[in-house]
Amino acid sequence: MTNRIGDKAQLFDALYTSNDMYFGREARPEFSRLIDTIDIRCFHSLDLGCGQGRYAIYLAERGSAVHAVDFSSVGIEKLSLYAKTQQLNISTEHADLTNYQFPIGEYDLVVFATVLDHLDFDGRQHVIRGITSSLKPGALFYGNVFTKEDPGFISKSKGLWQQECVSAAGIAIEHYFDSNELWNCFSPHEILDYKEFKEEDCSHGTDHWHGWAYIIGRKVE
Fold it and tell me: Which of 56, 61, 133, 142 is deepest in the core (most CB within 10 A)?
């Protein structure tokens, strides 16, 4: 596990070094719709697997204090420098989420965008429990994952992973989610919005398609 995590961190270090913002600067539309309908100026938010920080930046620009965590030292360094130059309230932490020590009841919002699908079973379960424990009662969470409708899953199942992978980051995906699997991970809580769909991605690499699922929910008190 340690070697695999280390290899993945090096992969993302290289991607983030090669590009100002490898996955683009735009937060996903369902996330921006959520945030733009609420006042987050008193929020303390956690961005898990923040990468170069597009979600953390979006939140901080709208007044939330944000703690951003990632295993890529390059991503964390770039986000920290950007936050400092733009005077954004973002603290950063270089850490491996598979053994991360989550706080208890500290956050008003937790973001986990393309995180759970990059972890093995034990890592996913640890992070899911950590998300729940770190939220205040009634607090919000948002996450997204790749599903088995994704072309990457189809290529991998046919043994054509290396030949047909159109995104350099695709090789890091550990798990493609079944239909409703993401919902079931958080079903003890109030699910405010959930969707599974296919979508074109033009943000990095050759233009390609993804199978997505996203979830927005509220921790049951």
Answer: 56
pLDDT along the chain (221 residues), means of 10: 70 84 83 96 98 97 98 96 97 97 98 96 98 98 95 71 55 92 98 92 62 96 78
Q: At what angle do helices 54-61 and 73-86 cross, to 10 degrees?
A: 20
Full DSSP string of 137-193: EEEEEEEEEEBTTSHHHHHHHTT-HHHH--SGGGGG---PBPTTHHHHHTTTSEEEE
Q: Beta strands 208-218 and 90-94: pairing type? A: unpaired
Please list, in sequence order, all residues whose beta carbon lies within 8 angstroms of the beta carbon of residue 214, skipping any fewer than 6 positions away.
28, 30, 31, 142, 143, 144, 145, 182, 193, 194, 195
Which class is 2-218 in CATH?
A: alpha beta
Place of tokens 């995180």: 115
Task: Give whole-number Cα distances, 70 to 39, 53, 77, 82, in Å.
Answer: 26, 9, 10, 15
CA angle 59, 39, 82 (to 5 degrees): 20
Stated as kind and residue range, the H or E segment containing 131 is: helix 121-134
